[in-house]
Amino acid sequence: MGESHQGREHPRRLSARHEEKRMRSTRLLATISNITLVLLSCAAAAQSYPSKPVKIVSPYPPGGGVDVIARMLAQVFTESLGQPFIVENRTGASGQIGTDAVAKAPPDGYTLLLATSGPNAILPAVDPKLPYDAVKDFAPVSLVVVSDYMLIVHPSLPAKSVAELIALARARPGELRFASTGYLGAPHLAIETLKHLAKIEVTHVPYRGGTPATTAVISGEASALFASGLTAMSQVNAGRARALAVSGPKHSAHYPDLPAVAEAVPGFDVTQWYGLIAPGGTPREIVDLLNAEVAKALKIPKVRQQILNQKSDPVHNSPEQYAALIRADIEKWKSVAKAMKIRPE
Fold first, then answer.
1. 138: closest CA among 277, 276, 42, 274?
2. Where in the chain is the domain with CATH 3.40.190.150?
3. What's the pLDDT score for residue 6?
4. pTM value?
């Protein structure tokens, strides 16, 4: 009689607890199922990739170095993967417009970017208001091309080496006019790096592109320029400009008689790179497939020769190595921008 219910759980409460556990299990199974479906869908998409035309965005005008490399890759990929790879020139704002278009494209591998160090490393280091995040919004695939700039001067300038140019700049602070291809382009940052490391003061004069900047030097309107090697070499061979050095960290096989700027200015290293990049979140299987295609393309003799003819070097690396290079370049340019008080226009 009067048996105590202490220690026993009320049947309704017990039933509610069982129901809660059942619902949790159902939700967990549903989540796992959804994740599995997404992964299977991504895997299926990657296995069938590409199943329709692919767009490679060149953020610069037709006919330039970026456009040439983009079209070369597009042709090779079209032949090897069986779908048209089409180059679309989305120009403007120093490469920002085309770069941003790819950042905001669906991450399905059907919109790619032929990226360069300008909008993908220099601008992100200087401009906090860019419409894209150069690290988070992209999935790097591989480098494709790396090239040095050539430091050229007008023949009348009394400097036949980097050391003599630095001595002249120190003797005439602010008088030497260094041309560039535009504000915040790599040649501009090369000037700022030289000023910073060599402790000199020169005047930066930005032009609208490589042709007017080169014309300024050969006419004597400007004293010096970090120029595209291909453009500079024709002027040097014609005697209209004097070559002093290359901008990379060491001698270049393309210019065996030229020293590196770094031999006179330790730590100087400014190169231009082009690489293939996909939108962030692109399935790794697609990134890996494209990476393998870049590697195969750069082994084709005709492709290699086309790159070498531009005084550039074909370079393939892993997605991780390319991502690390981009991050390192952003940090390097942040340091230069801070030291030289460089701000976006």
1. 277
2. 48-147+272-340
3. 52
4. 0.83
